[in-house]
Amino acid sequence: MSSNPDLKDMPGYLEPMSEAAEQQYAGDDEAMHIGSIPRITVQGFCLTEATMQVAEAAMEDRRMAKAHLKVEMGGIPGAIQTFEQAPTPNLIIVETSGQRDDLVSGLDRLAEFCDAGTKVIVIGDVNDVTLYRDLISRGVSEYLIAPVSVFQLIGSIGNLYNDPEAEPLGRTIAFFGVKGGCGSSTVAHNGAWALARGFQSEVAVADLDLPFGTAGLDYNQDPLQGVFDAVSAPERLDETYLDRILSKCNDHLSLLAAPATLERTYDHSEKTFELLLETMRSSTPHVVLDVPHAWNAWVKHTLESVDEVVLVAEPDLANLRNAKNTVDMLKQLRPNDRLPHLVLNKVNVPKRPEIKPEEFAGALGLKVQAAVPFEPQLFGTAANNGQMIGELDGKHAITGMFEDLAQSISGKVQPTKAARPSLSALLSKLKRKAG
Q1: How much is the pTM?
Q2: Pick from 44, 259, 373, 386: CA 20 to 30 A from residue 365's CA?
Q3: What φ, ψ does residue 46 adopt, rounded to 5°?
Q4: Which residues of 33-72 are buried (b: 16+ CB within 10 A; e: fewer)?
Q5: From-to residues of CATH 3.40.50.300 in the chain
Q6: What kind of fold does domain 39-161 have according to CATH?
Q7: Do the beta carbons of residue 357 and residue 344 sit within 8 Å?
Q8: Residues of CATH 3.40.50.2300 domain(s) within the chain?
Q9: CATH of domain 169-409
Q10: pLDDT, tens digit, for every residue of 314-367?
Q11: CA distances from 261 to 256, 363, 413 (A)
């Protein structure tokens, strides 16, 4: 049995998660369904500080990374004054307040200066269906009732510029180990396999650890082409080429393997993998990224741009320090996204002092998605066989953990499971009745 030191006595201890942190962790479901905004120019004219703060927060959101957004105060009069002398952007956002007639006349005046193709979103404090229909008939693209949220604003912009006929983009899920050797790749590969099997949906795994990646071994695949070929020839990279170099692991799981050789060095730039990820998202519902334990420009950019981040750690002090630094950085990079999922791996190593999972997670303001016990025989046998845990023993408790993890990262609504009473609880009830 492992001993558990008191976390409060350790350096860098943080108080357990507050109620506010709990609410933040729950996140806003709207964020999960907002796609990236294309390269457009947006100019906003606010009337209230609250709307200005929302617009500024939207400017920092990763989904707006390609768009150019500028906001200032002034409402419709400010917009008119600006565009009397300047061309209009792709999208104008104006906040209004007051009577319906003033709003309509102001928008009519603004329309005189709008270039062809310019779209307009109006934020107003009048909740009236007739007004909404009147504005839409006059060419207004969207009318939002104040106060608006960051997700409402970004979502409205996305709805205007993302092709409704296009196939929905897939979800990107990055697995990142906070310390070398914590088993992040094993968790990623088993999680992806469980996701493909559980939802009968296409999943593509990309092993981004080019010199030392293990996905090919874990899935018992030895493809001739993979990630390196994809990023080495960006001019050739499209869905057809990607489909040709993906290795089929089973009916729903494909692999883009790492070369796992040291014949060359792999000095990636910040956006080396950006085109690859966009291409994979356009053709696959779920993209699982096995991100190596490193910290450089491309790792940082990848973790910033994906839909979900899964942190994998072991329950010791060095992992806690690294996890805290990683979570703090992700909060800065992704202020409007869900907090990362936390998987504790190799829990209950014999004779090793460990931090209790709930204390480890509480110190980070997270919840433990899974606490995977130390089972060297099980994992070693699966690795040597090129199998996943679910293939080796489908009824093992750890298989259920990976199934739960897959459900959590899938973006699907998780059904509520009724708690099953234990056998001992049933027996104690029977004894009480008999007495």
Answers
A1: 0.73
A2: 373
A3: -100, 160
A4: ebbbbeebebbbbbbbeebbebbebbbebbbbeebebebe
A5: 169-409
A6: Rossmann fold (3.40.50)
A7: yes
A8: 39-161
A9: 3.40.50.300
A10: 999 999 999 999 999 999 999 888 899 999 999 999 999 999 999 999 999 999
A11: 15, 39, 41
